[in-house]
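Ticket #279: bound-state structure for calcium ion.
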Amino acid sequence: AKREGRGNFQFFSPEMNAATHEHLLLENRMWGALHAEDFELYLQAQVSLDTGRVIGAEVLLRWHDTELGSVEPSRFIPVAEESGMIVPLGDWVLGQTMALLAQWQREGLDELRLAVNLSARQFSGGTLLARLDELVAHHGIDPSLMELEITETAAMRDPENTRQLLRQLRARGFKLAIDDFGTGYSSLAYLKLFAIDRIKIDRGFVQDIEHNPNDAVIVAATIGLAHSLGLTVVAEGVETQAQWGFLRDKHGDEAQGYLFSRPMPAADFREFIRLQVQP
Ligand code: C2E
Ligand code: CA
Ligand code: CA
Ligand code: CA
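RESOLUTION: The complex was predicted; output attached.
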């Protein structure tokens, strides 16, 4: 609770101390957690609105700490971003994702795509391309089975650098998606500037789509715009049949959300797919 009123300003508020303490605690434990393999990839299905079939999944990082229990990404990702830990952590995610794709390939499950989240730091660090080349060669995977998600905020930090890097990634065959579309700024400008494949409509526009006419208009127009630019559209956070129906009627391409699947461990996802392909 915020108690300090006017004239009662505390430089170190209890809230601030708690936040700093939390930050330090998480930062300290994160390195150990990475070495102890306390992180795990969870997968959330992406489903074709046309056919209802799973076309791939988004990789979402989970941390099961021996002392802290489960730590939510909304707690640890910002700390990792700030401390720079997101670079080795993100690197681990890329390697694990490719290892999983390679495993699926050996099992004949060779059409499912995996999307990974890239942080702004990874994206603008200058080593991403070389590192991805190294990992692709090591795991022997087809880069077109991998989608890289970047947020518009990350993309717009240095638009010229982004433009060049996206071109090079695309030349390798990687698929590129803009995440949380509509929540940053100059969304429309970079659609023309950047060579991308997909946009992910943020959950914020989807959640009230049935009741909020503005959101409905924005989503329908975004799908139309994306299609006329040759891009596909994934809607995030689809939780209800009504949202699914709206997106399908507006010719959205894919949906992701609790309606279809929660994020789950890779082994569970494998089972989920196996059950789905039964006639
Ligand atoms: P995001 O990339 O926008 O991921 C979507 C988030 O929405 C995920 O939260 C997912 O679990 C949640 N979600 C999916 N469907 C639904 C739904 O139907 N309803 C609701 N209410 N939520 C849904 P999560 O897993 O907690 O991740 C939060 C954020 O943490 C992600 O947002 C992403 O920005 C970041 N993150 C997660 N994994 C990674 C990673 O490996 N690297 C980086 N850099 N960031 C990551
Ligand atoms: Ca994402
Ligand atoms: Ca997102
Ligand atoms: Ca989001």
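RESOLUTION NOTES: The beta strands are 39-48, 54-65, 69-71, 113-117, 146-151, 175-181, 198-201, 232-235, 254-255, 264-265.
TICKET STATUS: resolved
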